[in-house]
Design brief:
Elements (H helix, E strand, L loop, with lengths): L7 H25 L28 H5 L14 H19 L4 H24 L4 H16 L7 H16 L6 H15 L2 H24 L12 H23 L2
Helix pairs in contact: 1-3, 1-4, 3-4, 4-5, 4-9, 5-7, 6-7, 7-8, 7-9, 8-9
The structure holds zinc ion (ZN).
Length: 253
């Protein structure tokens, strides 16, 4: 693999800025893909349909300047939109950092995490994940894994099977098929079985904590399904950043 010697001090802020801008585009996708709308055309306020002006489209900054409300109808803008922009600005520098600042693997990993983020955000909003996010996620995760010497397909197979079994056991309906693709992608990103298990374990712990808080605060009722892709995203990031140390502490190595 060719190493481009780009200093992190330049690469990190550049990747963050590009990421934030991509996050803005990602928000358009998250809003329009479930509604089967094209990506062309001007962005509008979802409440009053007013066409947004150029400065209202500036990521993050516009949310702060608008104080989270539409200038026309005063409807509040979902916090998810600036959050997606912020996290988009984080996943690309994170991918580069995890890849030792090598440009190609770093950007591939960043792109995989970006599609993972969009899948999580769409799941949070609609309870479903479009193949428009899960298939590119799997593709870039696989692409990332194939750049590593000694690639093992086992983690991806286990990740896919883990959700595949649940999907079949649950009757095979609904949006469970996206989970299978996401599970396989998690396997590719984790690269090893212990790291995949760390990612899944972290996702379930965070999911259980959030579910407990939502139940106790009365915002959810028992038996109501919780969107799970955001926890899988969080678990995968945790495994990528701290996984090696967690596994070592666990096996006492
Ligand atoms: Zn409005």
């Amino acid at each position: 693999m060719t190493v481009f010697p780009v200093p992190p001090a330049f690469l990190a802020p550049f990747a963050a800025l590009v990421g934030v801008a991509l996050g803005s585009f990602g928000n358009v996708l998250i809003y329009r893909v479930p509604r089967m709308e094209g990506v062309g055309g001007r962005s509008r306020c979802p409440h009053c349909s007013r066409v947004l002006t150029a400065w209202e489209l500036i990521p993050l900054l516009s949310f702060v300047l608008l104080r989270g409300r539409c200038r026309g109808c005063r409807a509040s803008i979902a916090l998810l939109y600036p959050l997606v922009e912020l996290l988009s600005g984080a996943v690309f520098p994170l991918g580069l950092w995890l890849s030792g600042w090598q440009v190609l693997p770093g950007l591939v990993l960043g792109t995989a995490l970006w599609f993972f983020l969009l899948a999580a955000a769409m799941d949070l909003q609609t309870g479903l994940v479009s193949d428009a996010f899960s298939i590119p996620l799997l593709f870039f995760a696989g692409f990332y894994a194939f750049q590593h010497p000694g690639l093992s397909l086992l983690p991806a197979l286990i990740g896919g099977a883990f959700f595949g079994v649940q999907w079949v056991a649950g009757g095979g309906g609904g949006g469970g098929s996206a989970d299978v693709l996401v599970g396989a992608a998690m396997g590719f990103l984790a690269g090893t079985v212990p790291l995949l298990l760390t990612a899944l374990f972290a996702a379930y712990i965070i999911g259980a904590c959030v579910a407990a808080v939502l139940l106790l605060s009365g915002r959810r009722t028992m038996g109501e399904q919780l969107e799970f892709i955001p926890f899988l995203f969080a678990g995968t990031v945790i495994a990528l950043v701290w996984g090696e140390r967690i596994v070592q502490a666990y096996v006492g190595g």
